[in-house]
Each structure stands twice: as structure tokens, then as C-alpha cells.
Amino acid sequence: MTEAAALETVDVTCVFQVSQGLLRGSKPLRAVNGVSLKIPRGQVVGLVGESGCGKSTMANILLGLQRPSSGDVLYSGSSAAGFSRREIARRIQPIFQDPYSSLNPTKTIESIISQPLRIHNVGAPSEWSGRVGEMLDVVGLPRRVASSYPSQLSGGQRQRVAIARALIMRQEVVICDEPTSALDVSVQSQILNLLQDLKEELGLTYLLISHNLAVVQHMADRVAVMYLGRIVEEADSDTLFGDPRHPYTRALLGSVLTPDPRLGVPDTHLGAVFPNPLDPPPGCSFHPRCPECMEICRSEPPRPASEGGHNTECHLYNGAGVSRTATQSRGTP
Amino acid sequence: MASQTILEVENLRVDIPVAAGMLHPVRGIGFSVSRGETLCIVGESGCGKSLTSLAVMGLLPKTARRTADRMDFLGRDIRDFREREMARLRGGSMSMIFQEPMTSLNPSYTIGNQLAEVYLRHVEQNRAAARDRAVFLLEKVGISSAASRLGQYPQQLSGGQRQRVMIAMALMCGPELIIADEPTTALDVTIQAQILRLLAELQREFRMGMILITHDLGIVARVADKVQVMYAGKTVEEGPCETVFDAPMHPYTQGLLRCIPIPGRTRRGERLGSVPGIVPNLVGDLAGCMFRNRCDHAGDACAGMPDEPTRMGDGHAYTCLRTPEEVLGERQAAEAP
To answer: Which residue would you say has higher pLDDT here, B280 or B30?
Structure first.
């Protein structure tokens, strides 16, 4: 590839020391454990996984809010080490899940949306209100809300304000952390349509973090599945949803509840217990919940295996021979 | 079968005085639940679905006024029950499961204490029996080494486990009716599937009636026997689950179903359907169809629309001026290539 990805992480690890209580010392928690993820320009990359898998820590690292313990983040090919927080913020902005807590209730909408301009000292203050008006048009809000306060707006309108704030600096990369989970379905579809339109019009790049796989499938070009700090499977959207390989991915896909009244609630075959990240299981960290667990999974962590851009980290696909039989054996359900 | 009916509600209304006048969050809802049956009430936030359940349980805020033409629980009229009598029902033969297990469990008492309390209060003053029942139910809801969990505090459990404890607690006194308000909204998709399966299994095993309140049409389709779609405090469509999903008649139901991306049916990058606009203000005198300002088919007649639903047979009914012929004709035209 000639063009550098808009955003890339190279073997990023993030370790937190978690206190075990008074006098008991602390234990390392590997929230993100050696993740390499590329977000190509103009694409939507989906990041999915259960809570506690490290998705949000990844978002914080990419936003420059959390320094990785090791590894590097590349912005258009250049290392994060060369950028200050403020410079990173000029390139990449977040949209968070809860539009109720991500907007300051004591500030007007105009003041909220123009805040990035103030912080980065862009243009003359007299131009700001015009820019805010333009952004309100872009996200489909009437200009009169500029003088309102967040509490006067509905959830969907607030999320539009958050999007306007994220885009006013003409950022190219937006990290959407569960952008629609707190919204009603009819509002969710409006926001998803807006995000899609803005992507086309402004040539944006998104990292879409979500636990709603139907939303991810609808939006993302490429999808990465995260489990306990590792990306266990990554492929372009059609491949991943059409031919999921990792047993965890299959379980996740199996638990999507499509509105089909003829199907009951699926059995995910996953054990109930999400492992304690402070004390991850040996070998493959997924093995205690895996319906296809083998002897080797208990002791040895699987190595990443790649096949035509479809990366899987699972012992089923590590050896070429095993891979084929495994693929065949689940061909017929 | 009348003898099987557990709860029957007719024309339930809730009015709350607010600064701007009288708020009418629930405006004449009726439903019934039978033994072993799951009724799903679905709608967006602010449609009155949670207040409906609180009204049934007698847990409305003090300022709220509740009226109903009929509210029969196990054959008894509960409209005029005093707080003492309602308290005896709640947690006993009628129990509930709320959305956020962390806020509905008390962090300063152990799981065992909280489970036992319900039993001691409603069934009998026998600590040993309460403990046995707690262990039995914790095992039933899939919590491992149940006996040793009794001494744990809610914050020592994961979200999914806490919700399992809530379910066990709801079952402590062998209820006839379970009201579950968004029981899985705070949980991961994998855990959500497990909890819903568990609820369905337990419901079948104990032959309970269940009212499940949710905004997630996926959940409704998978667990409901009967569906009731609410908008602005009224039922806009109701009927057997399959019928409502296969042939939605009300424009709001149709709009909601177009809004959700469905793997395999909606294509990537394609625009999703939407229901433009926002829910109306329910303060003051309200008349006509409240959906008319968001509806593609709205006309002048909608402002003075009567409340009488159009009945389709097998319990399927919808409240809209459009005739079944119009809706079905349009659907056939849309499906034709």
C-alpha cells in the first residue's frame, strides 16, 4: 500500500496497575495487549466486543487521552510521539455514547460547538458564530438552537450537537464510541444516516466502536473483534459476517436478535462468566468459554494466522491442515 | 380462556400535574396477560410504557393520578387496594425486574440477605427455608457455587450475574406475574441472549405470565406471544407477535421496523428508514392521532380521529384511519417488482 493509513496502531499495549486493596500491592491489568489495527483513509472500521474487552481503552489511546505502555500510534504514518495532545485533537475527534453527559449543561450550544475553535485559536472570534451556523446546517439542526442549552434538546438533537462539535475543525478522523446506544431506534436510524451522509460529503474516516453488530454490519467496511485486549479476528465486513471463523465471533453473531418472530432466543453456547482480566486464563484467553476448545488451547496462546486479509487468532486456524478440517466440519450446521 | 387470565386492565390512564398543566403520559391502555404468556410492550422513550407497568404495581409517583375501568389481578379488583395490600402483592404474587441491577440491589447488604428478605416478608418467618429457597433459585438462574455467593455483596458480581440475582429475587415467592422493564438493556449482547433464554425457560417451567417492556424490536420478535406497540400514551397496534411483525398495519410500527438495520436485508451504505420528528408534548388537552405530525399518510381527518381501533381478527388491531385494504394494497404494490 502506498498511502499511509489515516490512523494505525502498531503492537499497542496498555497496562494499568490495579490496586488489590490495602497492603496487598497491585496487579497489572492488560487492557490492550499487543493490538495492531489499521484504519485506512475514507473507510469505516468497526470494533466490536463485550464490555471489558478494551474497546474504550483503544479509543482513548487513539484520541491521545491515554498513553500506551508500549507500541506506537501512527497518524497518517507519523508517530504519535511527535504530536502534542492538542495536535492530535486537531486530527481526530470523538463522539461518545451518552449525549447527556458529554455536553456541558451550563454552556449554550453555540459555545459548545465553537469550543474547539476557541481552544485551537482558529480564525477570529467574530467568525465563530458563522461557522457554528454552518455546522448546524450540516448536522441538520435549525440555527436557532445555537442559543439553547443542552437540557432543552432531545437525545437525538444532542447527539447531532456532539457530531457538529467533532467536525467543526474539519477533522478527518472521528472515533464513534457507541454513538447510538443511548438513543431510541427511530433516532438511531437518523444519526446513522447522518454519519453516513457526512462520511460521503466530507470524506471522513470512522472508527465505529459498538456492541450492536447489526449497526456495525450496516456501517463498517472492515471489522475487528476484540476479546480481553486482543483482536481475535479481523476481516472486511462481508468476509467477517459471511464466514466468521473465531468461535467468539460466531457466538457474537449468534446473539444478534434480528426481529424475526419465527426464531427464538439463540443459545450462544458461551459460558456465563467473562474472565477476570486481572487473572486471564492461560493459553488462549477465550478457551474457558469456547465450545470448540482443544487440548492445546489450555496451554498455548494461539498465534495470529492470516489468509487473504482475514486475520484470525485461534488454534483452529493455526496449522494449515487443522484449518481445513475445521472449516469443513462446521460447513453443515 | 378466562380462568387462565392473570391480569386484565382496561382503559388505564395516568395523569400527572406539572407546572404547565396536566401531563397525560398514559391515555387509556388496556391489555391482558394469561398464565404462561408473554406480553411485550414496545415503544420509544416517553411513550408511557414504564409508567404503565408502575401503574399496575401501584408504584407511581405520589402526585400522579391513576384511573382505570378495570384492573383485575388474579380475579381481584386491585384498583382500590391500599398501599399495605399492594405491598403484599408486590414481590409476592406479582414481582418485577428492573433495567439496572446495580441500582436495584442494595450495595450494603449481602445477596443472601436481600434474597431472604423477600421470602421472610411474604411467605414465612423461617430463615432456614428462605436460605434453601435462595440457594435453589440461584442455582436455577445459573449462578455457580450458589451457597457461597450468599455472603457476597452486589458489587462483587458482574452485571450479568447481578441480573440473574434480580431474577432469582423476583422468583423467591413463586409469583404468578413477572413485570420486566428493559431487563437486558444494560447488558452485553451475549449476556442478553442468555438472560432472555433463562427468563423464557423459567416462565415456561413455573407457568408465569410475563409483561416485558422494551424498546428493542429484536427482543420483542424473539420472546413475545403478544405485542403491544405504544405511542404517546396509547396503544397504536396490538396483536399476536408473528402477525404484527409480518403485517404491521400502523404507520408507526412500520416506521420502527424500517429503522433498524437487519443483517442480510438492509445493504451496507444504504440509507435506513426513519421516523422524522420527535414525540409530541403530552401536556394539556389532546385530541386526534398523536402520530399525525410524524406520519407520511397524515391528513386533515387525523386531527379529529376517534379512538376506536380497526380490528383484523385473531386479536390484531390498530388505531389509524387507513383501512386494511389501503395498507395491504400499498404493501402489495411495494413488494411487486
So the answer is: B30
